[in-house]
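DM from R.C. (forwarded with permission)

"hey, sorry to bug you on a friday — could you get me a structure for this? deadline for the figure draft is monday and I only need the backbone to look sensible"
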Amino acid sequence: MEVSQIAVERGIKTRLELVAFANVQKREGKTDLAEFIANHGGKAVEEALSIGWEFQESEENLRRSILSRMDLLVEAMEK
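My reply, with the result:
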């Protein structure tokens, strides 16, 4: 499973949260995530997190970008 998928499935949005989860996994004998974090720079880890959430939120963001400001205001008032 990809780092970006793990992040989205677990609700992980920050590098610190990912490192903490990797540490838990490492204690269980699963070292792949910890090795990824250790072997890739912080930029690659942040990019993996960003890409995962970008994919997750893309349909909603596209839908919202198509709506007019008035539609968004009406939608917000209905909630």
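R.C.: lifesaver. The first helix runs from residue 3 to 10.
me: no worries. The CA atoms of residues 56 and 76 lie 21 Å apart.
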